[in-house]
Amino acid sequence: MAKWGMVIDLNKCVGCQACTAACSQENTRLPGENWQDVLYYTEGQNMTWLPRPCMHCEKPSCMHVCPTKATYKTEDGVVAIDWNKCIGCKYCMIACPYGVRFYSDSKSLVEPDVRGAFAGDGQHAWNPPYRIPEQFEDWTHGVGIGPKGVVTKCTFCYHKISKAPKGTADLDEDNPATKEYTPACVRTCPAKARYFGDLDNANSRVSQLIRDRGGVRLLDQTGNKPQVYYLTGVGGVVPSSRAKKA
Amino acid sequence: MATQMQGAGGLNTPLLAAGGIGLVASLGVALMALMTQGHAAFNTSNDGVVWGLPVAVYVFFVLTSTGLTLVASLAMVFNFKEFYPIAKRCVWLAAATLIAGFASLALELGHPFRMLWAIPLSFQVSSAMNWMGVLYALYLVLLLVKFFRIEGGDWDSGASRNFGIAAFLSVIAAHGTLGLAFGMMAMRPFWYDGLLPIYFLATAFLSGVAFAVLISYIAYGLDQDNMPERVRSLMTGAMPKLFATVLGIVILFVAFRTVTGLWSNADGLEVFHHMVASPWFWVEIIAMLVAFLILLSPALRTQGSMQLAASLLVVLALAIGRYDFVIGGQVVPLFKGTWVEGIISYTPSTTEWMLALLAVSLMLVIYAVGERMFNLSAEPAPKK
At the fourth CATH level, which superfamily is domain B9-332+347-373? Predict the structure, then answer.
């Protein structure tokens, strides 16, 4: 079984937010409910940016705090939410060090609240005319529009990657055989800054990049051990942990 | 007889009326808002504070319940007999405050009814919240069993004592898991503290003592002269000394915690600077210090009006402290970069305030109904 992971090359990322838009369209998220986002900030006198999906951590604190096991780790390494079990306590949002989770019943982050125009149908939190096809809805993995009163997050486009043939090392939009299984943010990136593949396969592109170019993980001191790595391109390898063995 | 059952001062009916009106009004407004807007009626947000005032209210009330059980346990577990005259009232109020806290939390959850089966059936061992829910539920059952034992006159049988001990142990465990629910969050340095359950224990005990003093005065018309001799003797003897001791410990906890937070450069602790810049923090500190000075003075601490003032000041300080604690852990964004300009702002919405009013009203109604139905002043018959 694969352990899916992502590598984001910060030297290539142009901060265009195409990934954010693609994610939002693919997964029918509310405006502002950016499962994938690009955060802008200033470093000294320079503006820079950081793309930030869910890190799908190896040791996810969000999973350990969930009182109902609604948040869980799939066999292929994805942190998923079972909307049938989520009670909306938001403890996972407290425990996630990366701020990637959203509560479906909260105030809209962007005004006006489009839920007013596309009110929910009793089952879904809202009901837009253009939406993720019904056959992809999978509440046990948090895929789809989802109900009210639950927490939502990036699924690594689980409705796509889970259909990839077993043993696939890389999910690449340039490979016709894997194009349809590639997460929307990876597939749409115009700078090709994103790579997606099996972290447990030493020959996968993501493993090679992490190894050869010194992939680093965000806020590694939290011990959550993200499965999303960044290539900074500005110096040596940052150890993933102070301990000799992870 | 009726006078005795309703409290000598006759305050029970006004309390019941105030609680009833508050309950109807708050439920009406809150349910209307929740049914039409859902939790968008709260000022909590996906990019800021996700646990708002209703969670602070929950923490305040369940820890008050914890403290009231600790006060009752002084008599019923540790055999400090002078606390018997207020023990039964404390047990009933502990149940009332616990239910009030859970009511606030239930309306804050996305799916409160799903919680009833999803938590016990899933039983996530690593989740402090799972243990907190299970243990507080167990505590409520044991508390009520103990109450109805003593209501039936069975204070001292082996079974009755064991239920009291079990209730005491369950609430120690329950409040500990509530403390751990915050204290284990390494990614939230404002909360991260292995000793947080002990901090909660001290503040819970203080809350329980303050409520025990308040309710004892309310039950006897706010006048020491109306109190039976054994209650008056407690109120002028051990109670104010206990109150002063616990308050002193809590003042030290708050002082050292704040100084550590202000000193540290650790990412996430800058919220302490934000906290001390708020006048509410100083209201909390001054309220506790004034109450402490009252309780230190042998002349003042035995006076009814001074004890009432001290307990009201402490309840105010604890309420501010709980709010600052719950919200403070969230106002510094976790995923912090230079793009974060400052502290997230949060002010509770009307609906959130209604949940606070709901909890207070529910506590008043349950307490007043208990005062009407049971003789909460009862204590064990003297041994022959």
Answer: Formate dehydrogenase/DMSO reductase domain (1.20.1630.10)
